[in-house]
Amino acid sequence: MGIKFRLFFILFIFLLSLSFLFAQPVKEPNVSGTFYPDNPQELSQLIDSFLELAPSQKVEDRIFALICPHAGYGYSGKTASFAYKLIKDKTYKTVIIIAGSHYFGFWGVSVYPEGIFRTPLGDLIVDEEFTQKLLNQEKDIFFEPRAFLKEHSLEVQLPFLQKVLADFKIVPIIIGESDFLTCKKLAMLLKKVIGQRQDILVVASTDMYHGYDYEEAERVDNLTLSYLRNMDIEGLYAGLKEGRLQLCGGLPVIVTLLLAKELGHNQLRVLNYTNSAIVTKNKTKGIWTVGYASCVIDQAKEDKMLDKNQKKRLLQIARNSIETYLKTGKKLDIEENDSVLQKPMGAFVTLHKHGKLRGCIGNLVGTQPLYLTVRDMAVESAVGDPRFPPVEPLELKDIEIEISVLSPLERIDDPQKIEMGKHGVLVRKGFHSGVFLPQVATETGWTKEEFLSNLCAHKAGLSPFAWRDKSTELYIFTAEVFSEKDY
User: Fold this and answer.
1) d(CA 295, CA 180)
2) Residue 224, domain extent
3) 322, 316 contact by CB (below 8 A)
4) Could you count the other beta carbons within 10 Å of the beta carbon of residue 128?
């Protein structure tokens, strides 16, 4: 008996040791019961209620990435649901969640290597095969466990994912202090590991404005969203560094945009925006306000008016036209065989000198072939803009040319149909009219009300509030904008 007992005991200890050896480490939740309910049934029902309120949208293309807020569900849960509803019941095998560090300061990127993340809705397995290909490839990308100890920004995405997806693993990533180069390293490494896989989803976790002024929140967040819509990565990064733009998860968003563009996903749509002042119905100045947005990144359909060669040709025509006029006082004599450039289209030509506006003239409605419109508007911008003296020949080497090719005008009956950063607007009342190109919203950071009021007052010579008058005509259009700096 003694020998058998000892053998049994030794076998038991050996098996117990093996169980500990092969047991998956479990990351317990940090903010369960505070940012979201810790009761599984209550949490499940709450997320269901959010998803029911979110609009149903038909999705034709595969969603590659989401940008979602990470505040307490009572503040940002409804906004997050706009994005998560789009991927409900879709098939993804790996979800990469990229969040920023709020509590632990470190330089670089921390990738959680293995184990389980637990929420009240169950356990999620870390995709160890994927994470091991990220770790130890770059000195700035490693595992720093302290980054995950208190962090909420990554964790609050998990219950939503559990409700809308099935049978997937996660890659948890937290970014600390980093620069653009580190962001690019991570994006390129993720691209390499993803390869040709089509079953990957990326979630970037971020809130927006943080401050004490509701009006400032609207203005700053509107400007930030315009950079997101345009997927202007360098502009967004610079704006965040300068403080003109705000994203508390700015670096995760930068990485996501870099990765998306590398993999050909070049369309970002803003699905919903709100802020804590709107949610709590308290817009008093001095009350802490945080902005929340949900966005989706997918593959844009090929609806471009011009290809790369056509854009380069128009830029060449614009510069040659200005050079010819400044030397001879005559229009450039030119013929163009490209069938697209022969189509009547509206266009504006904008001149910049050392980053500052030097002239901008255009024609909203195409009355002649596009290439001739660009030729004529380039000259007018150089010598005919009444706000500036004519461009001198010696200046031309410092001039950067930008062209905006316009879609047909569409009359609207509701200013809410205007998408800032996407639509240009023409206002017309009687003999008064004025126009702003889409990029004006990006460059100024105005709210929609400021945009329309400035358009009426400073462009059309109307009352700042004329746009609210039903007798005032509003037209929207889109613009394909390209510049010499692009080539």
Assistant:
1) 22
2) 24-298
3) no
4) 15
